[in-house]
Write a structure and sequence with these properties.
With 146 residues, the chain is mainly alpha-helical. Helices cover 42% and strands 10% of the residues. It folds into two domains: 11-99; 103-145, no CATH class.
Amino acid sequence: MVETGTNKWTVAQKKRARTLVNVEVRFGRIPRPNSLPCADCGHVWVPGGRRHEYDHYHGYDDAHALDVEAVCTRCQRRRSLERGEIKLENLRRAAAIRSLRRKTRCKFGHPMSRASDGKWRCRECRLVYWRKRGKVRGQAQQDRVV
């Protein structure tokens, strides 16, 4: 049913297959993925490390819903890229967003804060920038009063 390199699975099929695996794990019929080494690279999970998850390597059909392998998140991402389930530009965009979220200080060490447009900016550096141009709100308001 599924051609290689295309994403023909519906959201409902994926959800049904994942639910079946979660039920099997909950009842103890399948071990938790973190308790197994990665099927590709052999990575063993430790608390705080990258987690493991089950990969539906035969697809999401009802006949293959329980055909899963425990893989680490790095190998799962690689497998999904190979199958065409996710695109490389989406991964790059997500990485860029994560790096923006992680940035808490500017290059001068000032704390970053979220601006009104939703972007993270250094408030101190912005104030220095506007002071040099004479456009700080306090100064502009004083000029109007005089």
